[in-house]
Write a structure and sequence with these properties.
mainly beta, four-stranded antiparallel sheet, single chain, 422 residues
Length: 422
């Protein structure tokens, strides 16, 4: 049915503090002025769950994980919840749940606590919990910052994490926070960008620092370093590995490879490092012997990286060496894998997870829909018949023909496919 009048919605403007009064036209047109000067109380975050989607799965996307110090358990993220499984695989046990998006878990050096990211207070922050998901504690407190890839310092007293203060105009910096909270300290704020790679012109100023990792020597923080923010269709290289000296503040570039170097993972014995790089349009994992500097492919390809996106969850998912330094536990192709070091042979670690995905209320509105005749605003490809008495044309992806010049258009077919260019 057709509407009898036209409804226009105007936002009121305050002139000298006085809002515009509502106006009613003399004809059937209705003009509605909305008062935007009155503040209404809205529902606070986090949202309250009103729906739950339940299913079982044996795969996931962008699974960041870690291995417990005793080598018996894997903690991983799946659809915003944290799960644990035996290192050999099996039924996954969910240790966090609900509407909050929990991600990027890392065990403390003693295995008793887990650090992770969560928006359970209404904004993304760093949190910790016991290994079974209990005793939640908030480490950082803020409303606008984004975080990526938290990791414990080897003494277990602090957390190093990449932090972005302004998602639209700042860069990720390495920050260090005490495990019990506090204001924290930026480690890379003073980075001048010397010997950095990334965007030349057009990008935002400053240096991004992502994926902090510790190896045998707790003095050094390994990470990926980049200039100029995010972008698309970029010229490589974009990221290179670097170390931050916690005693002197000195930054030293540790890689020089065309496909970039990302997400370093170091063995506890100081012998191996694995990092991601792109080659021939695909991303794989490189293995470096830290004693000799020699490198080889560990696994290639694995999955896509995030170099040409916002990299809000780092450039690659988190991986971890086993405590005996003989294998890398990682994820790609939707599965969790044990990759032997240095041979690179891979075996799947199977898991099955029960997902209870909570959601807020359904956002749904009712709109009146005009069901009468539609005025076609554009016809395409009109063509005349040889005798000039009819024309054929397409409109709304359907083919019509009509007598020229005052005939009624009629469809030529009853097909539901696209019909164009008669």
């Amino acid at each position: 049915m057709r509407a009898s009048g036209i409804s226009l919605l105007l936002c009121s403007l305050a002139l000298g503090g006085t809002p515009i009064e509502p106006i009613v036209a003399q004809d059937s047109t209705k003009v509605v002025v909305v008062d935007t000067t009155t503040k209404y109380k809205s529902d606070s975050l986090p949202l309250k769950p009103e729906r739950t989607f339940r299913f079982d799965t044996d795969e996931g996307t962008w699974i960041s994980l870690d291995v417990s110090p005793d080598g018996k358990t894997i903690v991983f993220e799946l659809l915003g919840d944290l799960y644990t499984i035996p290192v050999s695989g099996g039924e996954a046990r969910r240790i966090t749940r609900g509407l909050p998006f929990d991600s990027q878990p890392r065990y403390s050096p003693d295995g008793k606590r887990i650090v992770f990211l969560s928006d359970r207070d209404g904004a993304e922050n760093v949190w910790t919990c016991d290994a079974d998901g209990s005793k939640l504690e908030q480490v950082t407190r803020g409303k606008t910052a984004l975080y990526a890839s938290p990791v414990w310092t080897p003494d277990g007293d602090y957390v190093v994490v990449s932090r972005l203060d302004d998602p639209l105009g700042a860069n990720y910096q390495l920050w260090i926070f005490h495990k019990d909270g506090g204001t924290g300290l930026s480690l890379t704020k003073a980075d001048s960008g010397q010997n950095s790679v990334g965007r030349d012109g057009g990008g935002r100023p400053g240096i991004d620092a992502l994926g902090p990792a510790f190896g045998y020597d707790p003095r050094y923080v390994w990470y990926a370093r980049h200039r100029g923010g995010f972008g698309y269709n970029l010229t490589f290289p974009q990221w290179q590995l670097a170390t931050f000296d916690r005693e002197t503040g000195k930054i030293v570039v540790q890689s020089d490879i065309y496909g970039s170097s990302m997400r370093p993972v170091l063995s506890r014995d100081g012998k191996w490092m694995v990092y991601a790089t792109r080659f021939d349009g695909e991303t794989g994992l490189r293995l470096r012997d830290l004693a000799t500097g020699s490198e080889r492919w560990l696994r290639y390809p694995v999955q896509r990286d995030e170099q040409e996106s916002r990299f809000t969850r780092d450039l690659m998912p988190g991986s971890a060496f086993t405590p005996d330094n003989k294998a890398l536990i990682t994820s790609y192709a939707g599965k969790i894998w044990r990759v032997e070091v240095p041979s690179g042979s891979a075996a799947q670690i199977p898991f099955k997870a029960r997902v209870d995905q909570e959601a807020g209320s359904l956002v749904k509105f009712s709109y009146p829909v005009d069901t009468g005749d539609v005025m076609v605003r554009q016809i395409r490809n009109p063509v005349s018949s040889p005798d000039g008495k009819r024309i054929a044309f397409s409109a709304l992806d359907r083919l019509y023909v009509m007598d020229w010049p005052k005939g009624a258009p009629r469809r030529l077919t009853r097909d539901s496919v696209h019909e164009q260019v008669p």
